Amino acid sequence: MGGKYERDDLATLRVTNVSEFAEENDLRDIFERFGRVTRVFLAKDRETGRAKGFAFISFQDRGDAAKACEKIDGYGFKHLILRVEFAKRAT
């Protein structure tokens, strides 16, 4: 991993309990109101193309990520309650 597309873990949120019918643009629309979103990664099943239930949202600014984390954790989206926390660095 790494390279020019490496995410900034300090400003990246991990979102869980995401609906299998969610799309990256849905998540971008929800989180962009808190600041500039630089990356949205929605894990999808290779066979069905449906979301696997989690995503990572990267912000340009950690302060914006913190606001989004506080406001969106517990937010109802597509009949599920989203859980949002700061992503932990892969070891």
Structural write-up:
The protein is of the alpha+beta class and 91 residues long. Helices cover 21% and strands 33% of the residues. It has 2 helices and 6 strands; from the N terminus they run E-H-E-E-H-E-E-E. It has helices at residues 24-31, 62-72; strands at 12-16, 37-44, 51-59, 76-77, 80-81, 83-86. The strands form 2 sheets. Strands 2-3-1-6 form a 4-stranded antiparallel β-sheet, with helices on one face. The chain has a two-stranded antiparallel sheet with strand order 4-5. The longest helix has 11 residues, at 62-72. The protein is globular, with a radius of gyration of 13 Å. The relative contact order is 0.29. The model is unreliable at 1-7 (pLDDT under 50).
Give a short summary of the structure:
This protein is α+β, with helices and mostly antiparallel strands. The protein contains two helices and six strands; from the N terminus they run E-H-E-E-H-E-E-E.
Number of helices: 2
Poorly predicted parts: 1-7
Q: In which order are the strands of the major sheet placed?
A: 2-3-1-6
Mean pLDDT: 89
Q: How far apart are the first and last residues' alpha carbons, in Å? A: 12 Å
Helix percentage: 10-25%
Beta percentage is 25-35%
Shape: globular
**What oligomeric state best describes the polypeptide chains here?**
single chain
Major beta sheet summary: 4 strands, antiparallel
> Helix and strand succession?
EHEEHEEE
β-strand number: 6
Which class of secondary structure composition applies to the elements? Answer: alpha+beta
Rg, Å, rounded: 13 Å
